[in-house]
Specification:
The complex is a heterodimer.
Chain A lengths: L4 E3 L2 E4 L5 E6 L6 E7 L5 E8 L2 E4 L8 E5 L5 E5 L8 E8 L9 E2 L3 E5 L1
Parallel strand pairs in A: 2-11
Antiparallel strand pairs in A: 1-3, 3-8, 4-5, 4-9, 5-6, 7-8, 9-10, 9-11
Chain B lengths: L3 E3 L3 E5 L4 E3 L1 E3 L5 E8 L5 E7 L5 E3 L5 E5 L4 E6 L8 E9 L7 E2 L3 E6 L1
Parallel strand pairs in B: 2-12
Antiparallel strand pairs in B: 1-4, 3-9, 5-6, 5-10, 7-8, 8-9, 10-11, 10-12
């Protein structure tokens, strides 16, 4: 597709279960970002990739969160042993490159609800 | 730490009146600044961006923003609000020395009254 694609669009999971969120960036975009937006909060940076490597993982809230990117394309964000505070919209964005000024294109997000 | 601050969490205007959404960033070398809009249940959409060219930037839907280095501000304006402008607006900054990591403000919710 022409835009950033995220799946699933909605996910309801039980507390303690693991979830995987997927992001398909725009073809050719080397930079990929993960953010989350909790209810009433601004966007919180989680991690970004340049190619397959993650120069900045500083936003991952705990060791239950991990992310990988393979082939410089698809990325998965994994949350282990989900907690209710993990409920949020998880947004993925990609850009042609990192560096100041490159426009990021955002996916529609995955709404995660932990019950 | 480098940051961006949106001074109002909520702004309410009447249809047809001007809109002003305020944003200040922490001073740094070569910032690039963006405004994004998020309508309910939709993804983020770029309104406009500043990347060291003209200080007055025009965006989509009649929005514009002015980069003022002396005030470290990048306020978003529109002369006349429309009902369809009701949404959440995010001011975003990237810095050359941070590899392009997007730093988001907390967002401003814009309400437009008929």
């Amino acid at each position: 597709g022409a835009g950033v694609s995220q799946s699933p669009s909605n996910k309801v999971t039980e507390k303690g279960k693991d979830v995987e969120l997927r992001c398909d960036p725009i073809s050719g975009h080397t930079a990929l970002y993960w953010y989350r937006q909790s209810l009433g909060q601004g966007l919180e940076f989680l991690i970004y990739f340049q190619g397959n490597s993650a120069p900045d993982k500083s936003g991952l809230p705990s060791d239950r969160f991990s992310a990988e990117r393979t082939g410089g394309s698809v990325s998965t964000l994994t949350i282990q042993r989900t907690q209710q505070e993990d409920s949020a919209v998880y947004l993925c964005a990609s850009s042609l490159a990192t560096g100041s000024g490159f426009r990021a294109f955002f996916g529609q997000g995955t709404r995660l609800t932990v019950v | 730490a480098q940051s961006v601050t949106q001074l109002d969490s909520h702004v309410s205007v009447s249809e047809g009146t001007p809109v002003l959404l305020r944003c200040n960033y922490s001073s740094s070398y070569s910032p690039s600044l963006f405004w994004y809009v998020q309508h309910p249940n939709k993804g983020l959409q770029l309104l406009l961006k500043y990347t060291s060219a003209a200080t007055l930037v025009k965006g989509i839907n009649g929005f514009e923003a002015e980069f003022k280095k002396s005030e470290t501000s990048f306020h978003l304006t529109k002369p006349s609000a429309h009902m369809s402008d009701a949404a959440e607006y995010f001011c975003v900054v990237t810095y050359y020395n941070q590899g392009g990591k997007l730093i988001f403000g907390q967002g401003t919710e814009l309400s437009v009254k008929p």
